[in-house]
Every structure is written in structure tokens, then in C-alpha cells.
Amino acid sequence: MKIDITKSDLLQPLRKVVSIISKKSVIPELENLFIEVENYEMYIKSTSLDMEIVAKIFLKKKYKKKVFSIPGKKFFDIFRFLSEKQKITIRVEKKKISIFSNGSSYTLSICKTKNFSNIELIGEKKVFFISCKKLKNLIQYTYFAIGKSDSRYYLNGMLFEIKNKEICVVATDGHRLAYFLDTIENTNIKEKFIVPRVSIMEIYKIVENSEKIVEFQIFKSSIKMSIEKLVFSFKTISMEYPKYHSVFPKNPNRFLYINCSEFKKALKRVLIISCENFQNTRFLLKKNKLEIISENFSTESAKEILNVKYIGYPIEMGFNVNYLIEIINTIKCKEIKISITNEHSSIKIQNEEEKNLLYLLMPIYL
């Protein structure tokens, strides 16, 4: 079989598919691409056992059905460095494939395909639709708070909760929490599921900042996500997520309004002096003044005094300054509002222009 194709037709879908391929897997098949050619279509698939991506490419000629598997990273790297405008021919033989382009030629071994796994899509199917732009925003503003290798496995993922034509995403590692609520149309389902961190990062890379529509098919322990010619399937975390509403501050009685840009710059300056391992920083709030104090084991110190609008009694609290910077980095506004109950309770950080987006941060004992 000889397949004629251009680099522009193959490179972009190939880049998305190979992103989940493992370079040094104990299972050799996970390093390969599974390719199926039939009629005017080519399907390219990769898997990591917990995820799989399938890209569909339209061909200019009609071909008989052919299925084969090849080393994924090598195949991608060859195409990546080929000339943009040259015609590319792929010749598929019994035990190898050959790639020809303008005097260049490469040969790759064909691997076994019988052990190539599939994500099981079992149970009742529920469907909803969301735009790429909206999905990307939901992830962009919250993913940093997902736990990393936490023993409480459910914290290593992001909660999606759908009801009343609204979609809510929640991420927390036990120290901070990110919450974002948005609307979705044309759905009446009520469902919630936890998407692992690694799958969240793949979704963020796959979706574009556009109005293209993403279809989600929800199954018992897996999700199938479709965007035009790309299908991404992944396993969900089949555990109960914590009741996050119970940690939202109740009846806060102190309120801080502060310029977002000035606050971020001050935090980055005191971070220079803070301890590398702990990054603990003291915050002293009194009438329209915020003092940020950082010290380390070398008896070095930093102190920043900012003019702010503060309503409430004086209070002293401690926070991990790096966690605070990560939250501020996601907020795009002139002024932020911080609601405080007491020195032992989490604070609520909000963009006044975006009421459906909020962050919680637990204080630390200094």
C-alpha cells in the first residue's frame, strides 16, 4: 500500500495523538501508534491505558483496509523535520513502512497490534455539549489547585458537576481550593465526575480558544470527548469527592480590597527572602494598611507595607506565599476582594467582576 499525504495534513493531529505516548514504558505497545486506513480515511490512535486519543485524517485517494502499528515518537519526529511543501509517500509492507520525501527516505518496523488496549465505555451514556473556549477557561482558572500524588486519590483530579444547565469545576489539594461556575446550554442532565490531573492537562492542550463545540459522553467509569476529527477517551476517578461547600467561609466579618498588580509584585519580592521549603509569610492587617513580613533561617527578612482598603478589626495571619501568588496569577482584574472570618479559617479571594470564580486558601500557623 502506498499512501500520499502532505505534512500539513498529518502533523497537527499527529502532535496531539503522540502527546500521551510514554517513552520508556514497561509495556512496549504503549510506545506505538495504532494506524488504520480504509477508504478515504486514516485513523491514528495512541494509548496510555488510562487515556487514548484517536485522530481522523481525510485522504485524497480511496484505499483498501490496512491496520498496522509503528513506533510513535520516531514517526512523529520524522514528519516534524520534513520539508513543509514536499509530497510525502508512505509505503506499507508486511514488516515495515517506508517514508519518502524529496530524496529523504526512512524505514520503521511494524509492531504487533493485537495487544493494543481500548478504554472501556460501559454503562448508561449521558451527553452534554460545551464550547472549547468555555471549557478551556474552566480549566485555566482552576487546574493549579489539583493535588499532586496525594494519598487521598480523589484530590488528584478535578471535579465536574453538572445540574440546572450549569457546570461547576472544583480543584483542591487540601490547602487551597479553586471553584468556577458557568452555564451550558441544551442539557438537562445531572451528573458529577472526577477527571484525573493528567487527563485535565491533555484536555487543556487539545482544546483551542474558539467557539468549536465539544461533545462529552459520560459513562460509568470513563468519558469520551469529541472535537471535530479528534476523540479523547479517559478513565475517571471512581471515588466520592469531598463536600467542598462545607469549607466555604460563613459570615466573614473582615474585608480587604487591594490592587491586584501591586499585591502580586509585593508577594514576589518577599518570596525572595522566604524559606525555600516552607515559604511561610506573615500578614498583618490594620486600618487601611497591609504589612507582609517574610523571614528565613539565615535571619534575613523582608517587609512590604501596602495601602489598602480594609474593613474590620486588626488581624495577623500566616500563608504560604507561593500558593497565594498562584491564585493571584489567575485573576485578571484591577482589584481583588479578600473575605476573612478569623485567623484560623480559610480566606475567600474573589475577582469582583467575576462572581462565579472564587478561591479559598487555608492559613498556616507561624
Number of helices: 6
Based on the structure given, which CATH architecture of the largest domain is correct? Roll
Query: What is the name of the CATH superfamily of the largest domain?
Result: DNA Polymerase III, subunit A, domain 2
CATH-assigned fold name of the largest domain = DNA Polymerase III, Chain A, domain 2
Number of domains: 3
Give the helix/strand class: alpha+beta
What is the residue-mean pLDDT, rounded to a whole number?
90
Strand content: over 45%
SSE pattern, N- to C-terminal: EHEEHEEEEHEEEEHEEEEHEEEEEHEEE
Overall body shape? elongated
Radius of gyration, in angstroms, nearest whole number: 25 Å
Main sheet overview = 9 strands, antiparallel
Q: Could you tell me the number of beta strands?
A: 23
Broad CATH class of the largest domain: Alpha Beta
Percent helix? 10-25%
Q: Which spans of ≥5 residues are poorly predicted at pLDDT below 50? A: none
Strand order of the largest sheet: 11-8-9-10-23-22-21-15-19
Cα(first) to Cα(last) distance is: 69 Å
Can you put this structure into words, describing what you see?
This protein is an alpha+beta fold and 366 residues long. It folds into 3 domains: 2-109, Roll (DNA Polymerase III, Chain A, domain 2), CATH 3.10.150.10; 126-245, DNA Polymerase III, Chain A, domain 2, CATH 3.10.150; 250-361, DNA Polymerase III, subunit A, domain 2 (DNA Polymerase III, Chain A, domain 2, Roll). It has 6 helices and 23 strands. The strands form 4 sheets. The chain has a 9-stranded antiparallel sheet. The chain has a 6-stranded antiparallel sheet with strand order 2-3-14-13-12-7. A hairpin with a 3-residue loop joins strand 12 (213-218) and strand 13. The longest helix is centred in the first third of the chain and has 12 residues, at 7-18. The N and C termini lie far apart (69 Å).
